[in-house]
Amino acid sequence: MYKDSLWPFYRHGYNIHFNSIIVNKQNFNSQAELLQFLDTNNLYSLYTDGSKSADRVTSAFYDPQNKSTKCFKLDSKCSIFTAESYAIYQALLYVKNIVFKNFIIFSDSLSVLTALKNNCSKYSVNYLVINIKNVINDLYNTGKTIEFVWVPSHRGFTGNEIVDQATRNEHNEDHSTDLKIPFTDYHSQLKHKMKLLWHDYWKETSKEKGRWYADIQGSPPAQPWYHRNKTADCRKFITTINRMRFGHCQTRTHLKRLNLVQDSKCTFCEEDNADLNHIVFNCQSFGVHRLILVTELQSVCDDDEVPTRLQDLLADQKFYAPLYKYIINTINKL
Length: 334
Ligand SMILES: [Zn+2]
Known about the structure:
The chain has helices at residues 31-41, 80-96, 110-117, 127-141, 158-168, 186-205, 211-216, 235-246, 252-257, 276-282, 287-301, 310-314, 320-329, and strands spanning 22-24, 44-52, 57-63, 68-74, 102-107, 145-150, 173-174.
């Protein structure tokens, strides 16, 4: 892991940021159009690409003028962003030794090109982006110009296809120990690890407590259920459904459990053990509303059968609106 007493940004002079990186917005519809552009502008072209699979990360560049490719093996923990950046970085080092003035680098990584164009100085910027800017600055100072073009991959551009293949070939140089892994590359792995730990903890603890909720929500949600729910536009809707999902409602059974009332008798039909299931499925006072509820549940179910367990209904957001309407029209408050 790349660690330094100074943040990468402060390792470099501010002057490099005065030279903005040129990212050409040219769109090429065909290989012929691309070649025409190179000819007209008298440009030396290079193609770069990065590749990441489960156990292999490589960066490569291709020089069509010399018909040569070069592939570098990186540490398998490097991200695809690092692989793409390193391919550009190596292509620029190569440019240093080419006797020519104007260069163009084709990359299929929009995220790297965007990062190069931005003058972002946050410490979390991948240090390779700063290294690339440094090399470009050196090249500018020797009278060379560099511009970048984004070309989407697998669109039939020969250079792209060749460099893509080069990342899969046997590598020419092993840089897996030389290239320090940018610390930002560990973020996704840490996130993934954290998710697994949280998942195990969820599975283990739900055996003992929160079984009602665990039955509804099988695994820890990445976002709250109402994150993308368009009908969840009022607070009462969200709190009502939340209380049903958690099983913490103002039903008599729950209030009795908390010792807030003397008995668990339903205040509507006087039946004992008035829990959420009683309100939704059994309470005799709400027969007509239940008929409406069943019709509405059926209508959102298409040809499938309506689940008969409340936990199963609460596990699927399409049932939330009918359930909410039923609660509002019957006991009104949970
Ligand atoms: Zn009742």
